[in-house]
Amino acid sequence: MIEAKNISKSFNNVQVLKDISATFEKGKNNLIIGQSGSGKTVLMKSLVGLLDVDQGEVYYNQENFLKMDFKQQKKIRKEIGMLFQGGALFDSMNVEDNVMFPLTIFTDWSYNKRLDRVNFCLERVNLKDVNRLFPAELSGGMKKRVAIARAISMNPQYLFCDEPNSGLDPRTSVMIDELIDELTKDLNMTTIINTHDMNSVLSMGDQIIFIDKGSIAWKGDKNEILHANNKTINDFVYVTEMAKRLKEH
Amino acid sequence: MRFLYHLGRYAMLMSQSIKKPERQKVFWNRVLIEIDKLGVNSIGIVLIISVFVGAVLALQAAFNMDSPWIPDYAVGLTTRQAIILEFSPTIISVILAGKVGSSIASEIGSMRISEQIDAMEIMGVNPASFLIAPKMIAAVIINPFLITLSMAVSIFGGWLGALVSDALTGDIYVFGIKSYFELYDVFYALFKTAIFAFIITSVSSYYGYYVKGGSIEVGHSSTRAVVSSSILIIFANLILTQLMLT
Fold first, then answer.
1. Chain A closest CA to B146's CA: distance in Å?
2. Is the minimum CB–CB distance between B124 and chain A shorter than 8 Å?
3. What are phi and psi of A10, to 5 degrees?
4. Å from B27 to nearest chain A CA?
5. H/E element holding B62?
6. What is the CATH architecture of A1-79+160-166+184-249?
7. B15: which chain A residues are within 8 Å (Cβ-Cβ)?
8. ipTM of the assembly?
């Protein structure tokens, strides 16, 4: 479980996050939603320590992450897998080396054992015979799947996904969502997903927080979001023509 | 103020870079890869520039020292001293700052903007130590070899220039090359080469590591890396010369 308490963050005197408090539960897909520029990515980066917060605390299983020294943070970080918006695969390494990277750095396993793990992770994300390909040779969906394989290679307790289906076609988006959902349940991870894709929200949102102008404007789940009594969230949910028409029917 | 800000951030990055790597074997493998990328791949440009500049230096020396008061072998001696003391260590290092420095800044800058460095940090890997330290060590090891090669090829170029132009005979040139030779000059040149190699790799890595924005900023950081490292090389050259040759 991850807990954020009173997180605030500003850039050049512009407050991007205002007193955010939320609990992200284990074995669930915890979605952070909101329009572009609302502060979702800043919140996610603050939770993993990529950005220093101005105020507030972040707890990983009741341990204050932001107060930890470098060694303690490193221990937690080995339990974190992160899927970046663009995949963030290492350009100079092929798929196999990308997925193997954390294993090479942090385990004493033999090459064969690491390779078995790489192949297992790649199979888990439905990829085969791609070991020797470089990121530049992969499609957008494949890149995301390789990035997921790399994120789960160390068997993490926590999975962070920053807009996992941005730039993907609807079918691949659904596939990535299903994959993340399946992995979250199977590996019993605390998964936090940043998204503004309503399909992801409705299919995966075990727990949802809606951020508007840096503050939490609504909390709920995928069943509650369509009937929320909140103008800001309704404006967000029913902004597309398709959603408007479905609401009318 | 801005200078102090950069200096402080540079010092912090360097202190991060020299931290113990997560895995020694992976680290030294990366050093070997960087030796190939930064050093071996630069041999061609070093050879071409060195042979021609060596030839031109010999010709200039021959044409400008055409006096009965100056012995002919002074052409070889002057060419050798110019090559060993300044041309090979300093000018070739400035050229390498352009080639290697821009490549380092754009490589690390691209990794920064595509979140590859963030990905490393999230995994618990120290990106500065993983990315920057192998480049610095590789350059400090390989650049003195490149410069030694440059010295040899430039002196050979000078010999070719002397022969082709008929300015003096090969024997006199070789006699001049051997005259008043001090091994300390080579040590001085290689020592400053190692310092310049550190400047090129660390300054370029610094500009790449802290890039913000997109591909245009990566380009800008790459230009800044080349300009700053070139200026710092020239400045360090002045100080080292003052300290080591006077």
1. 25
2. yes
3. -125, 155
4. 10
5. helix B43-64
6. 3-Layer(aba) Sandwich (3.40)
7. none
8. 0.86
